[in-house]
């Protein structure tokens, strides 16, 4: 996985954690909504999934947040 891909994945993870906290959810609640483990949510939010996060997981998270996928993964250039 390229350095750029890892950085994008980390930024998306930070965004997921931010949205989750805005909703007042803990990682366990998001994991239950999505149908994955809390530890996998933690890996996603911290950008520690060395294999990369499948698009299908991002889709499930976007659905749990009731938002379109593009809005979940939108990365602003700094």
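Q: What amino acid sequence fits the structure above?
A:
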């Amino acid at each position: 996985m390229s350095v750029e891909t890892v950085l994008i994945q980390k930024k998306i993870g930070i965004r997921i954690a931010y949205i989750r906290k805005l909703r007042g959810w803990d990682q366990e609640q998001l994991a239950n909504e999505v149908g994955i483990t809390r530890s996998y949510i933690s890996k996603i939010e911290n950008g520690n999934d060395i294999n990369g996060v499948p698009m299908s997981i991002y889709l499930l998270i976007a659905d749990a947040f009731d938002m379109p996928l593009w809005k979940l993964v939108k990365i602003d250039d700094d």
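Q: And what stands out in the fold?
A: The mean pLDDT is 92.
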